[in-house]
Design the sequence.
């Protein structure tokens, strides 16, 4: 059981002279965290010396600053992230570790969650500083077979950004989709097998214990729940997230995936997924506005929900002239969607009290499909275009999503000065709701170890739409990276 | 008809009768000239390249560790280290796997080339950041290889000789070695419209290549420190300079082993994803 340090007396939130102090309400060892951070920082800084014939060690330090372009949006502090990858030499048995940690500037202070390690038991893991094993697994390799056990991330499917068949790892949405696709994925403790024979490959994955997706806290910059914006304007409001009761950790609630691939002129794969849908959906409860001395506690009246689904899909890739073509499709049984927020039953002018909200979930099968093409315009200029669509088979009028939901992507990548400079212009557009995102970035590589980047992102659209819910989050980011 | 007229007609007739003979004689003179020229080179351009092809085919079964240094015009430099695995398969297919060891941003990035024949090959690239293998159009083979002045094609096997025209321009020495200077022209338009190549007569390896885009030299490659390794002449130091930008790449072969006979398992997408491990 973890406690909220905001419930601790002030003198219990700090540590002096390395002595451990325990918050009497939450049993949190605050001093231990600082010592652990110190140890990890030392490990990061000395890792280059540790590398040798026995271990392959590489790492990366990343400093990120964010300037919000809208003065009334929730602000974000600078973030610092360290990454340490360790591999034993290739052999029949090998170990791979990918540890990340640092300071997350998007977390509202004081942080709610004071566990140092990100775990698999909470949706709202608002913790900083933090540590996380993105990957940590043991491999056994034989001639045609490879078995892995441990924390793993998988990449199935062929599309960028939202691959239709890439369902095994839930995502960390605490910075929406500003991180790369792989960085968004939460490593899942799992068992996997890969069998190769000639042009055929079979992948089987079993995630025995349920791993939930992660969301930003309702009062953090990337929470993306538009309905509560009125609640945040209540003077001294403190929005307390409602942590869901997760599905029980039984084998029945695990995730199973199977993928059969064939390499050839046209490469294709068949995919099967059964488990909890990794895409967030919330269930309404009751809005609670509870005035306290000096603050107003608000329970926004919704809780993340989880539903089992089954998906059967196919993906393919081929090359035609200057184009590299990719395609995916999947039919999913029992996906859940939220109704429009105006139907949730929020009172028009919220005041103190308890307000039960209306049911807001609906189940439907869906058909997803998408195509993408990478086209080399000239050397060092690559245009990627992608179109994908979701068809909600049994859609009632109450849903916010339309029967056909389209997502169009385009990315123009240009390298300059022998790839010393890389620029990207990324556009996303949903024609049904008229929402979109434009992202432009430029990286300059100073040396083999140092690089710096600038990124600007702009969102537009109605408040409940995928991108429009972040329309106050236009921002410029500056990033400095050192890697070794 | 007067005598003069008869004489003119006779001259005209004689002239007409002589025309084919003159032409024939002219042809013989020209033929002799070309024959002398060809015999002076002893070999045709195609024959020279047949020899080069033979040597390059022997190089296909190998493991190479390479350091590549990229020099900016302003003096800045970046270093990449990589390992290249090659396998020859009869009659003319080959496979190549290249994996980066450094810099950190490129570590474990790799590309796989699977040539069904010398003329027909598939390319894949793997980027650990995306955890995905991507097919690359073969039209990208003349593109810069990860920011260097080398191309993907430079890491492949020998070309299909039928796809090029070869002609010997002259003979001269380069770096103290007697060379054939051969003009190589692709029959299908590629990024480089022709190459002028200095081929060492004694070793049948390239010593220098000028890569042309139409009339202008785009880049120049020089091959030095040639050693005989396991019976195969091998340049251990290569420089390629982009003549337009002033950017230069030096490639040093740190170690090379031929006749490696790798199994096919090494040249799969699975192996590409695992950086050849």
Sequence:
């Amino acid at each position: 059981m973890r406690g909220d340090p905001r419930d601790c007396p002030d003198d219990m939130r700090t540590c002096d002279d390395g002595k451990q102090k325990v918050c009497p309400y939450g049993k949190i060892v605050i001093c231990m965290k600082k010592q652990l951070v110190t140890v990890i920082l030392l490990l990061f800084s000395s890792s280059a010396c540790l590398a040798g014939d026995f271990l392959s060690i590489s790492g990366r330090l990343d400093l990120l600053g964010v300037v919000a372009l809208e003065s009334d949006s929730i602000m974000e502090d600078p973030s610092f992230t360290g990454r340490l990858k360790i591999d034993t030499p290739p052999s029949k048995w090998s170990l791979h570790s990918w540890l990340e940690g640092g300071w997350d500037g998007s977390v509202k202070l004081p942080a709610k969650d004071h566990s140092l390690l990100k775990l698999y038991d909470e949706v709202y893991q608002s913790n900083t500083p933090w540590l996380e094993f993105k990957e940590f697994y043991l491999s056994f390799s034989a001639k045609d077979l490879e078995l892995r056990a441990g924390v793993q991330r998988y990449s199935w499917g062929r599309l960028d950004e939202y691959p239709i068949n890439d369902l095994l790892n839930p995502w960390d949405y605490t910075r929406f989709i500003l991180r790369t696709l792989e960085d968004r994925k939460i490593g899942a403790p799992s068992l996997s097998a890969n069998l190769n024979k000639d042009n055929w490959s079979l992948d089987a994955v079993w995630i025995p214990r349920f791993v939930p997706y992660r969301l930003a806290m309702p009062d953090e910059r990337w929470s993306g729940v538009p309905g509560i914006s009125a609640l945040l304007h209540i003077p001294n409001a403190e929005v307390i997230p409602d942590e869901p009761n997760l599905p029980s950790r039984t084998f029945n609630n695990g995730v199973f995936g199977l993928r059969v691939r064939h390499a050839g002129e046209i490469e294709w794969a068949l995919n099967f997924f059964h488990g909890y849908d990794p895409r967030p959906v919330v269930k309404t409860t009751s809005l609670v506005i509870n005035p306290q001395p000096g603050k107003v506690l608000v329970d926004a009246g919704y809780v993340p929900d989880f539903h089992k689904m089954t998906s059967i899909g196919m993906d393919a890739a081929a090359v035609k002239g200057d184009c590299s073509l990719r395609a995916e499709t999947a039919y999913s049984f029992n996906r859940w969607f939220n109704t429009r927020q105006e139907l949730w039953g929020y009172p028009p002018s919220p005041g103190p009290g308890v307000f039960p909200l209306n049911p807001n979930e609906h189940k439907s099968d869906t058909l997803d499909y998408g195509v993408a093409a990478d086209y080399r315009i000239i050397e060092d200029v690559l245009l990627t275009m992608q179109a994908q669509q979701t068809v909600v088979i049994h859609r009632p009028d109450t849903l916010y999503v339309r029967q056909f939901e389209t997502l169009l992507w385009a990315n123009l990548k240009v390298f300059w000065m022998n790839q010393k400079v890389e620029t990207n212009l990324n556009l996303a557009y949903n024609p049904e709701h008229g929402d979109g995102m434009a992202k432009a970035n430029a990286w300059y590589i100073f040396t083999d170890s140092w690089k710096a980047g600038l990124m600007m992102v702009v969102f537009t659209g109605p408040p409940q739409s995928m991108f429009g819910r972040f329309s106050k989050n236009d921002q410029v980011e500056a990033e400095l990276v050192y890697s070794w | 008809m007067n005598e003069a007229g008869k004489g003119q007609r006779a001259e005209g007739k004689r002239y007409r009768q002589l025309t084919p003979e003159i032409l024939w004689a002219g042809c013989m003179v020209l033929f002799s000239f070309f024959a002398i020229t060809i015999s002076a080179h002893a070999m045709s351009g195609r024959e020279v390249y047949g020899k080069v092809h033979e040597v390059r085919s022997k190089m296909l079964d190998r493991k190479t560790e390479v350091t590549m240094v990229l020099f900016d015009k302003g003096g800045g430099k970046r270093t990449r280290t990589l390992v290249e695995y090659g396998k020859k398969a009869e009659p003319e297919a080959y496979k190549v796997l290249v994996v980066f060891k450094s810099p950190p941003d490129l570590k474990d990035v790799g590309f796989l080339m699977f040539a069904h024949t010398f003329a027909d090959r598939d390319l894949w690239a793997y980027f650990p950041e995306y955890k995905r293998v991507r097919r690359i159009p073969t039209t990208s083979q003349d593109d810069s290889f990860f920011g260097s002045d080398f191309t993907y094609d430079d890491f492949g096997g020998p070309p299909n000789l039928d796809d090029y025209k070869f002609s010997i321009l002259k003979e001269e020495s380069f770096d103290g070695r007697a060379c054939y200077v051969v003009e190589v022209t692709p029959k299908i338009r590629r990024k480089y419209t022709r190459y002028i190549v200095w081929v060492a007569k004694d070793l049948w390896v390239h010593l220098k290549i000028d890569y042309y885009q139409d009339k202008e030299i785009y880049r120049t490659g020089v091959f030095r420190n040639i050693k005989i390794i396991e019976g195969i002449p091998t340049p251990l130091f290569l420089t390629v300079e982009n003549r337009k930008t002033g950017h230069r790449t030096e490639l040093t072969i740190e170690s090379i082993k031929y006749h490696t006979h790798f199994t096919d398992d090494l040249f799969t997408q699975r192996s590409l994803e695992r950086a050849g491990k």
Residues 101 and 131 of chain A are 4 Å apart (CA to CA).
